[in-house]
Amino acid sequence: MAVAVLPIKDLLARLAAMAQRSLILWGHSPQATASLINLSENATYRVDEPATGGKTILRIHRVGYHSMEAINSELQWMTALRRDAGIEAPEPIPAKDGRLIQLLRSPDLADPRHAVMFKFMSGSEPAEDGLKEPFVRLGEVSARMHLHARTWPLPPGFTRHIWDYETSLGSRPHWGRWQDGMGLTPHRLAALERLSLAIKRRLERFGMGGERFGLVHADIRLANLLVEGERTKVIDFDDCGFSWYLYDLGTALSFLEHRPDVPDLVAAWLTGYRKVAALSAEDEAEIPTFIMLRRLLLVAWIGSHGETELAQSQGVAFTEGTCHLADSYLSKFV
């Protein structure tokens, strides 16, 4: 029997009620309010405490995307990055029972959901005009995280998604099949199938050695960067896992891949990266593959997250644009 899917309006209302009821777990007053600021994999709320003027961030996790062990692993890496690498990353707040991860239940929702409260981080997302300087920041902070990942001993029980070919575009995709993206005609399917196979061949040739593949943020784009003066803060580690380090550059260009200034943005990212860590010419030459890996993965994400505003804003045009980018890529890489 098919499971009924709640209309998005009803789901948001029930999640909002769950969020509001949960605030007592962290010791908030009855006057505290939870306001939705983002719905993607998770529902994220800003919590305002009128008695003190304080703000925190509540994240209620999507059902079935991460286990409690995986969420705990994310929190462990963020703690290590703050402690060992000086990365300004979200800091979780223990609930009154001392636990960082809470399991929320609601009579209005069939499944319980994990939730984490974070300290509020000030700063603003860089605007999309004048992106060179923000991309230098992205490259620099990415290199710092990669250097940390290469030497950090994983804690016992550490588990996160692996973002390789099979789990991105192949037989076990975390975000659904790219073939189920929006507006895929037979002609577009054929074009993107050629792209997928070319990416697979290139990645197999590139390899997954320890200097190229490890723990990455996996969504380090401008929307997940907060800038405050000279300070650069990284948020939303929900997709962090094991992939190629250059995949982080692909994610930095999410939804920007079509812009004519992409070569300049890549150069800016590399400038920032090389302030901190080396990157070989051979690795640099493969950057277009990781841009297209991410682009095709986003076709899958849009197809499987049609309820979100971001997916709806991209729609069929994103798939059509991906085909144009695929033609350009395939003319240079086989």
Q: What does this 3D model show about the protein?
A:
The longest helix is centred in the C-terminal third of the chain and has 22 residues, at 309-330. The mean pLDDT is 95. Helix 3 crosses helix 7 (262-274), helix 5 (186-206) packs across helix 9 and helix 9 (287-304) runs antiparallel to helix 10 (309-330). The strands form three sheets. Strands 1, 2, 3, 4, 5 and 6 form a six-stranded antiparallel sheet that branches. The protein is an alpha+beta fold. The protein folds into two domains: 8-119, Phosphorylase Kinase, domain 1, CATH 3.30.200.20; 132-330, Aminoglycoside phosphotransferase (APH), C-terminal lobe (Aminoglycoside 3'-phosphotransferase, Chain: A, domain 2), CATH 3.90.1200.10. It has helices at residues 8-22, 68-84, 132-151, 165-168, 186-206, 247-252, 262-274, 281-285, 287-304, 309-330, and strands at residues 33-39, 43-49, 54-60, 92-93, 102-104, 113-119, 161-162, 213-216, 225-228, 231-234, 241-244. It contains ten helices and eleven strands. A hairpin with an 8-residue loop joins strand 5 (102-104) and strand 6 (113-119). Helix content is 42%, strand content 15%. The chain is globular, with a radius of gyration of 20 Å.
